[in-house]
């Protein structure tokens, strides 16, 4: 099981995650997020770092040029588009760098997931499914109905996100889908926004084995 830890704001914690063989680390470049990474992690340190972990830049409704400038400045390996980005923007970005397109799932709206994805199938490398936030773009700490994903075709590697906590390792292991690729964890593993509790992450990793 691949793991992505999102909302990293320090070089030290990025290095710790690399040491735990976590596959992806999310650095949020959305200024309204309490986990905004800009100015907290040195561009030079990140560029010069020799890490196996994939550095994922998370963007919300950003312009193409701004995304690509950040990718270059921080040496990002992957871009995650977590807003209302069009298929055209996704295609532009994915032509330059590996791209995750996130979809926020609201259980009060019964749009079929396969319908949500139909215009994005050819323009990104991965999907990510997160819980819809009332007044934002993530960090709800709540799960959506995973059965909606389990019952969908999807046909692209995807990340499962939203409200996953330290005690959910067994639940994550039991979830089944042919294209289930990774789990994404964030706010429920924190001491404060942007500061992870590494002991909880380690506990979760052991629970997945």
Structure description:
The protein has 209 residues and is α/β, with parallel strands linked by helices. It has a single domain (2-208), classed as Aldolase class I (TIM Barrel, Alpha-Beta Barrel), CATH 3.20.20. The chain contains 8 helices and 10 strands. It has helices spanning 11-19, 43-48, 64-74, 87-94, 113-117, 147-150, 169-174, 198-208; strands spanning 2-6, 24-28, 54-59, 78-81, 98-105, 126-131, 158-160, 180-185, 190-192, 195-196. Strand 6, helix 6 (147-150) and strand 7 form a beta-alpha-beta unit. It is globular, with a radius of gyration of 16 Å.
Set out the fold topology.
Elements: E1 2-6, H1 11-19, E2 24-28, H2 43-48, E3 54-59, H3 64-74, E4 78-81, H4 87-94, E5 98-105, H5 113-117, E6 126-131, H6 147-150, E7 158-160, H7 169-174, E8 180-185, E9 190-192, E10 195-196, H8 198-208
Parallel strand pairs: 1-2, 1-8, 2-3, 3-4, 4-5, 5-6, 6-7, 7-8
Antiparallel strand pairs: 9-10
Keywords:
single chain, 209 residues, alpha/beta, TIM Barrel, eight-stranded parallel β-barrel, two-stranded antiparallel ribbon, 8 helices, 10 strands, 29% helix
Question: What's this, in brief?
Answer:
The chain is of the alpha/beta class.
């Amino acid at each position: 099981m691949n793991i992505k830890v999102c909302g990293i704001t320090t070089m030290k914690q990025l290095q710790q995650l690399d040491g735990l063989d976590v596959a992806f680390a999310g650095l949020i470049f959305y200024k309204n997020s309490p986990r905004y990474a800009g100015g907290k992690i040195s561009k030079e340190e990140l560029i010069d770092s020799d890490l196996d972990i994939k550095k994922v830049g998370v963007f919300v409704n950003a312009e193409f040029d701004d995304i690509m400038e950040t990718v270059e400045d921080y040496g990002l390996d992957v871009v995650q588009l977590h807003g209302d980005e069009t298929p055209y923007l996704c295609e532009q970005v994915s032509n330059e760098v590996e791209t995750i397109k996130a979809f926020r799932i609201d259980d009060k709206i019964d749009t079929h997931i396969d319908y949500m994805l139909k215009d994005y199938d050819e323009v990104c490398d991965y999907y990510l499914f997160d819980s819809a936030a009332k007044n934002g773009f993530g960090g709800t700490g709540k799960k959506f109905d995973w059965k909606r994903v389990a019952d969908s075709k999807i046909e692209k590697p995807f990340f499962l996100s939203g409200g996953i906590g330290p005690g959910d390792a067994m639940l994550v292991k039991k979830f089944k889908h042919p294209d289930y690729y990774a789990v994404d964890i964030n706010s429920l593993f924190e001491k404060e926004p942007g500061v992870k509790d590494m002991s909880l992450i380690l506990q979760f990793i052991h629970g997945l084995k």
